[in-house]
Amino acid sequence: MRKRFLILFVLFFTIGCSSVPSTGAANPPAENLRQNSNTEDNLMPNQGKEAEDAIAYHDTSSVRVLVNKQNELPSSYVPPDLAEVNIPFTFSEKAEKRMLRQEAALKLAELFEAAKKESIILYGVSGYRSYKTQKDLFAIFTSRYGSEEKANQISARPGQSEHQTGLAMDVTCRSVNFGLEESFGDTKEYAWLKENAHRYGFIIRYPKGKELITEYTYEPWHLRYVGPELATKLYEKKVTYEEYLFFKV
Question: Exposed, middle or buried, 128 (CB in 10 Å: 0-12/13-18/19+)?
């Protein structure tokens, strides 16, 4: 069943998606998607009416833009409203990774402050990354793991990273030595984020058990801003962004 699910998912994106244009684009034709509505177990991609009407996921100006291995950002894309986030970081130097898009920066600061009031102390590690920075980072992972295919399980190719949107922030805490470790998922800090991040518009973008769908390994530290309304829907439905957009949920 899992293998069939993966094959259908990959086929859908291979046929139906190529890249994210720099301006808004139409969603997949609703009629084509509705033809799949009677598929056994609802495994065939089938965009729900709710998502169809509300999500302009190709629009790079939207905080709901979808970026993954099938939907790329142009190499020239730079968010127009980057701002430094007013949160504690694990480093002291000035760098692009301190920044997010303005709306996301404000909401992340609110999230950190709310967590602090409950004795949950979080630190920022990496926010915005330019196309060039991601290209250099992916080259490092490729060299480390011996192939692009292996590197791409844990690191995005340039143009396919959510960090380039200025809407993603990797976070950590003291108990994992301020690193980006899977063990962060076992901390009280992660438990708090899992139950509260949506209130501030953030989701855990790459959750455990959803690797076949997101096509990345589990990353409990990776927060993605999509806005409170959508984040709450994903939290309540317990689905990834891809599932919400393309599968019956």
Answer: buried
Do residues 85 and 98 touch, judged by C-beta distance below 8 A?
yes
Residue indicated by tokens 């855990």: 204
Query: What is the rounded distance in angstroms from the CA atom of residue 242 to the CA atom of residue 9?
Result: 10
Angle between helices 102-117 and 188-196 (to 10 degrees): 120
Convert the pLDDT of each residue in 123-147 to its tens digit: 999 999 999 999 999 999 999 999 9
Select 2-246's CATH number: 3.40.47.10, 3.40.50.2000, 3.30.1380.10, 1.20.58.110: 3.30.1380.10
Amino acid at site 190: Y
pTM (2 decimals)? 0.80
Collapsing DSSP states into helix, strand and coil, what is residue 220? Answer: strand
Of all helices (H) and strands (E), which one includes residue 8? helix 2-16
CB atoms within 10 A of CB 139: 14
User: Which residues have CB under 8 Å from 235's CB, separation 6+?
Assistant: 197, 198, 203
Q: Which H helix or E strand runs over 2?
A: helix 2-16
Structure tokens at 110: 């609110």
